[in-house]
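ok so I'm stuck.
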Amino acid sequence: MRQRRLNPSCNRKGIATLWVILCLPIALVLLCLVADVGRLWVERATLENTLEIAALAAVKELGDQGASDDAIPKANAVGIAFAAANAVAEQEVALTSDDFVYGTVEFTEEKNIFHLGSIDEANLNDDSDEDEDEDEDAEEEAGNGKVLPAVYCMGQQAVRSLCGLGDYNVYAATAACYDPGSGRVLLVQIDEFQEENVAIATPTISTTLP
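replied:
not stuck anymore, here's the structure
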């Protein structure tokens, strides 16, 4: 009786096919994750840009109304309106008054400190340097030692997975201040938050998305 010889090439093809079958689901999952991570990065950048617009609009309104505590409700309304005019993940950015924290920014040589509390009681600087270079960054424009009225704006948005994996929440925050001397508004990086001259944790959003 003649024995049949196995073809080695057929065995190799069978093993390769088996590996493809086993690895294909893993590759698809990884592709979905990469797509979701990329979308989250884009939507977070869009949310941050929207919050910057809202913070600048709010602090500008605050300054135009005299940089006082009485101007905060109107500043909130302006900031909320500017945020609502933008969309993140095809959804309107719906901020509330709780997403705006007001106070002052103190610029020192070491860091920028956001002081939570009454703007009326703050020792604000209203002098300006007419020869100041407009191309300088925000901290240099404000100048070391200055104390300016400011707002810290926070926001989050639900982003639906492209692969049906549910919803993700993206979060962003930014700060802006108003220079009474020049009438300009500036985005600033906050290095530390203080309340009654005591360092505190960074403010966070108190509400959660449905």
